[in-house]
Write a structure and sequence with these properties.
The protein is α/β, with parallel strands linked by helices. It has 14 helices and 8 strands. An 8-stranded parallel β-barrel has the order 1-2-3-4-5-6-7-8, surrounded by 5 helices. Helix 1 packs across helix 12 and helix 11 crosses helix 13. The longest helix is centred in the middle third of the chain and has 18 residues. The two termini are about 15 Å apart. Bound molecules: phosphoenolpyruvate (PEP) and magnesium ion. Its EC number is 2.7.3.9. It is found in: Cytoplasm. Its cofactor is Mg(2+). It comes from Nocardioides vastitatis.
């Protein structure tokens, strides 16, 4: 049945009853962006800019950064597509020589992501100038979001900095505090994007790299789904986009649950777009909502998966 759905999928991001869901790609560089542009996606939901600089000792100047970003934006310079650029998420699992604070006892809880701008505002300002230059040069619709946002003040300050360059501003929901205050975050920004990898890590207090804790670092954990639900519902109330750009979006069954929780876009590795799109095309929004409610009520991740599957099994 799954194979049949894949074969007949039209490439449109919507449920069987026509509820639209934007399917987006996660990219890291020009090569992955070019590959993604050939996939049936509405754009890029996560451009991880820090991955461009893992081998760099020194910060590239604004012009060099602009050239790097333009190569990623250019394949998406079409009227109906857009690219969400994430500002540097340096630190912890992604050390960038010129932006990582060394000798932290708890790097995952340290000065990483947007927090780098507290002590080094110039780093963010130069990156925003480069992103804006690349957007102008390519004509690609460009949104910008910050990783590791924990407070409403951070969201407000970041949005002001981004809008000063004429771009749409959003923040990632990766820290439970951001999900708990999703309404107030949304009052400050144009969109939210949930990073389920880190949101799971910080909700469950379990290192995402620790294989012994894989049962905890599972986005099907009901506590994680509850935070996604709060965020999705906040977005529905004000009519602003709330996406998911963590690994969770690439799981076809979980993707249905996320849509049922109010998520409006799913960003994933290009290879996952077809299986996810085909799966969504075979379920109604009502079924997605039933799957979401069933998963939320489950005791643990494996029961949540079973409960979501059961909704589809007894469809008429
Ligand atoms: C996430 O945390 O889910 C996310 C998308 O960001 P990254 O995996 O790059 O930390
Ligand atoms: Mg993250």
């Amino acid at each position: 049945e799954e194979r049949a759905a894949l074969a007949t999928w039209t490439g449109a991001g919507r449920t069987a009853d026509g509820h639209p869901v934007k399917l987006l790609a996660n990219v890291a560089d020009a090569a992955s962006a070019t590959a993604a542009a050939a996939a049936p996606v509405a754009g890029v939901g996560l451009f991880r800019t820090e991955l461009c600089f893992l081998d760099r000792e020194a910060e590239p100047d604004v012009e060099e950064q602009a050239a790097i970003y333009a190569d990623v934006l250019a394949p998406f310079a079409a009227e109906d597509r857009y690219v969400v650029v994430r500002t540097l998420d340096a630190g912890s699992d992604k050390p960038v020589a010129f932006a990582t604070h060394p000798d932290e006892d708890n790097p995952a809880l340290g000065v990483r992501g947007l927090r780098l701008s507290f002590t080094d505002p110039g780093l963010l300002e130069r990156q925003l100038a480069a992103i804006a230059a690349a957007a102008t040069r390519t004509g690609a619709e460009t949104w910008v979001m910050a990783p590791m946002v924990a407070t409403v003040d951070e969201a407000r300050d970041f949005a002001a900095a981004v809008r000063a360059h004429g771009l749409r501003a959003g923040v990632m929901v990766e820290v439970p505090s951001a999900a708990l205050l999703a309404d107030r975050m949304l009052a400050e920004v144009d969109f939210l994007s949930i990073g389920t990898n880190d949101l799971t890590q910080y909700t469950m207090a379990a290192d995402r790299m620790c294989t012994d804790l894989a049962h905890l670092t599972d986005a099907w954990q009901p506590a994680v789904l509850q935070l996604v639900a709060m965020t999705g519902q906040a977005g529905e109330r004000v009519g602003k986009p709330v996406g998911v750009c963590g690994e969770a979006a690439a799981d076809p069954l979980l993707a249905c649950v996320l849509v049922g929780l109010g998520i409006t876009s799913l960003s994933m590795a290009s290879a996952a777009v077809r299986p996810v799109g085909a799966r969504l095309a075979g379920v109604t929004l009502e079924q997605c909502r039933e799957m979401a409610n069933a998963a939320l009520a489950a005791a643990d991740p494996s029961a949540a998966r079973d409960a979501a599957r059961a909704v589809l099994a007894d469809r008429p």
